[in-house]
Specification:
Length: 107
């Protein structure tokens, strides 16, 4: 093979590699952010009380205070400023809680 053909093959291989890496990163990001609708979970962590907030930000209004091991239903998630929040419902209260306090492997 000529040097020219080899150079084109290397360029083509590099481009295909870049596309595959970008697609893989995109799929990983989507999978991490996606929570199936209606997943049952429990609150866990070092605290005994957790704030259920109106919006997925720390200075948002608190709509309820939930106790550890409260069962919640997770409906969606959002990540902002490296912080993931889950939209949950506990009884008749709905709001946002930091993902670090939600144990998705609850029975």
């Amino acid at each position: 093979m000529s040097k020219r053909v080899l150079r084109y093959l290397w360029i083509l291989t590099g481009l295909v590699t870049l596309v595959l890496v970008a697609a893989t990163i995109g799929l990983i990001a989507r999978a991490r952010a996606q929570v199936s609708r209606g997943v049952t979970a429990q609150l866990a962590g070092s605290s005994s009380l957790f704030h259920l907030r109106e919006q997925p930000i720390l200075n948002s209004r608190i709509v309820a205070i939930l106790e550890r091991e409260t069962t919640v239903t997770v409906f969606s998630s959002v990540t902002e400023n490296d912080q993931t929040w889950y939209r949950v419902q506990a009884g008749d209260q709905a709001g946002w809680i930091q993902a670090q306090y939600v144990h998705l492997d609850a029975p």
